TrEMBL record:
UniProt protein name: histidine kinase
Organism listed in the record: Streptomyces aurantiogriseus
Compartmental location: Cell membrane
Pfam family, one: PAS
One Gene Ontology term from the biological process aspect of the record: regulation of DNA-templated transcription
Family matches, as InterPro entries: HATPase_C_sf, HATPase_dom, His_kinase_dom, PAS, PAS-like_dom_sf, PAS_fold, sCache_3, Sensor-like_sf
Histidine kinase domain ranges (all copies): 425-536
Swiss-Prot/TrEMBL keywords: ATP-binding, Cell membrane, Kinase, Membrane, Nucleotide-binding, Phosphoprotein, Transferase, Transmembrane, Transmembrane helix, Two-component regulatory system
Enzyme Commission number, as recorded: 2.7.13.3
Gene Ontology molecular functions: ATP binding; phosphorelay sensor kinase activity
Domain of life: Bacteria
Length: 558
């Protein structure tokens, strides 16, 4: 039979416990005990000096009272030192009445005239009396024939004020130390009470810390913080944390990139860090909901906000710019498909008509019909290209005109329209015009005599765009709200939410130092106005503008 393996022996490991509750409790108890010991030491040291000072002052006071008695000075001058002499009797009476250890009266030679021990009367004092005999009062702790004592020495004057001796009074120092030792138990009682109160407070604080840290070890908390930092700065979503006062307390790298701010925003409110606007309202919680759309600079962001237990909140931000661009491209593609479908339908009808005319041998009518069709299409294209020389914008409006015709809307270009081919940002203007025209076509859909008119004119280097429609118009109280991200009265498209187009229009206009506004159109409907300062390049910085026109003329002449 094989021997069973010996179970491993567990070694007792001494050291700090791992739980936060235990560590905090032990540290607070150690701090409380250290404070008590330190406070006790700081209290006892001055107390000892204070008691010594009180004893010396008491001895000095007794010596002063004794030296002030004229009878002692007179007896010192007229009698001899003896055990039964008047000076010894009076000194002993004072010693017993005051509780002093000794009262010694001496002459100018340091000879004792009184002493507690009768055998010492007539002998020389054991300590130096020179200072007292010189007229100075002395307080000290010293050792003499009776041991260590607190002493007070004063000069003794006769009736004429001359120094004839000195009085030395001592208080047993052991009695002072006994008082100090007697006070120590009371001090330790107070210290013990303070330690007990500190221990109770430490226990209560530790319990609170235990609940807040969920009984984790400090190493676990440190690891969680390190993991949180790595996760927050590694994810591709922006994270913004706010405290209970609404101030930003955390920004990860992606949030800084999306919002265009840095670490200086920490400790400030969203309004202070971002400026007033929808983005600040979403982060501050003034706008509620899920997957809220907001525009920051040229970025379209999707924001979600979650409150935290401490009264703050955490907001996440996702970059939806590319998705919105794809959605706009999808809308443009869908519009192009609709335009092609409309042209195909119209072309098929015209071909059927032409075929019928030929079968009926109505050749002259067929020729007139073809000429009319080609002329209408050329008239529409020429009407746009003559007034708008930029090719991107002209192509956009020709396509929009075809879509508008299919939807039963008359899309026209104002006679005041004149736009040279000197645009600084033609793609930006295409985005603005496209959004406004689409918005106008949606507004007039289903209305009688639907019409949308576009006006593009220049004032120096400033481009002024106006898009009018015959729709229901926009109430005055909503004319600013239409430019807010997420605000729309239309049904959301398949690829996302509405309420972005007009906001981007204003953003693009403001980026160029311009403005975007809406007002009531003459005769009903809405009129959107966009002003773009310095949207045209200087003429002398551009190639000759007559070249495109010359090419067109040459083509037509051919």
């Amino acid at each position: 039979m094989g021997m069973s393996p010996t179970p491993p022996v567990r070694r007792l490991r001494l050291g700090m416990p791992r739980r936060v509750f235990s560590q905090v409790l032990l540290m607070q108890l150690a701090i409380a005990a250290g404070v008590v010991v330190l406070a006790t030491g700081l209290f006892l040291a001055p107390l000892s000096h204070q008691l010594d000072d009180q004893a010396m002052r008491r001895a000095l006071a007794i010596a002063q009272t004794t030296a002030a008695m004229p009878q002692i000075a007179e007896d010192l001058q007229h009698t001899q030192p003896s055990v039964g002499g008047p000076v010894q009797r009076e000194a002993e009476r004072i010693r017993k009445a005051s509780g002093a250890e000794y009262v010694v009266v001496m002459d100018l030679h340091g000879t004792r005239w009184s002493h507690t021990d009768p055998e010492e009367v007539g002998g020389h004092v054991s300590t130096d009396p020179s200072q007292a005999l010189a007229g100075r009062e002395v307080m000290e702790i010293d050792s003499g024939t009776l041991g260590r004592s607190a002493r007070g020495k004063v000069p003794l004057h006769d009736s004429d004020g001359r120094i004839i001796g000195a009085v030395s009074v001592g208080i047993e120092y052991d009695s002072v130390r006994a008082r100090l030792i007697h006070a120590i138990p009371g001090l330790f009682a107070y210290a013990g009470g303070a330690l007990a109160v500190g221990a109770l407070a430490a226990w209560l604080i530790s319990r609170r810390v235990q609940r807040q840290t969920r009984d984790l070890a400090f190493s676990d908390i440190s690891a969680l913080l390190a993991e949180r930092e790595a996760m927050l700065h590694g994810i591709r979503e922006g994270v913004v944390a706010l405290d209970r006062a609404g101030r930003i307390r955390l920004l990860n790298d992606e949030a800084q990139r999306l919002l265009g701010i840095g670490d200086e925003a920490v400790g400030r409110s969203p309004d202070e860090a971002l400026g007033e606007g929808r983005t600040a309202d979403v982060l501050a919680g003034r706008v509620t909901g899920t997957d809220l759309l907001t525009v920051r600079g040229q970025r379209v962001l999707v924001a979600n906000r979650m409150p935290t237990d401490d009264g703050g909140a955490v907001s996440t931000l996702r970059d939806r710019t590319e998705l919105e661009q794809l959605g706009r491209e999808l809308d443009s593609t869908r519009g192009l498909i609709d335009a092609l479908r409309a042209q195909d339908h119209e072309h098929a009808n015209r071909m059927h008509t032409l075929l019928g005319l030929l079968e009926l041998e109505m050749y002259d009518d067929a020729v007139d019909f073809v000429g009319e069709v080609v002329g209408d299409h050329r008239a529409t294209s020429e009407q746009v290209t003559e007034k708008i020389e930029d090719p991107l914008l002209a192509a956009l409006l020709v396509g929009k005109a075809t879509v508008a015709a299919e939807r039963g809307v008359a899309l026209g270009v104002s006679d005041r329209t004149r736009l040279p081919d000197r645009l600084v940002d033609p793609r930006g203007l295409v985005t603005i015009v496209g959004n406004l025209v689409d918005n106008a076509l949606d507004a007039v859909a289903g209305t009688p005599h639907a019409r949308v008119e576009i006006e593009l004119r220049t004032e120096g280097r400033t481009v002024v765009l106006r898009v009018r429609d015959t729709g229901p118009g926009i109430p005055a109280e909503h004319r600013e709200s239409v430019f807010t991200e997420g605000w729309s009265t239309k049904k959301p498209p398949a690829h996302g939410k509405r309420g972005i187009g007009l906001s981007l229009v204003r953003r693009l206009a403001e980026r160029q130092g311009g403005s975007a506004s809406v007002d009531a159109a003459h005769g009903g409907g809405a009129e959107f106005t966009v002003v773009l300062p310095e949207a045209l390049a200087q003429p002398d910085l551009e190639p000759a503008l007559t070249a495109p026109a010359k090419s067109t003329v040459e083509k037509e002449s051919r």
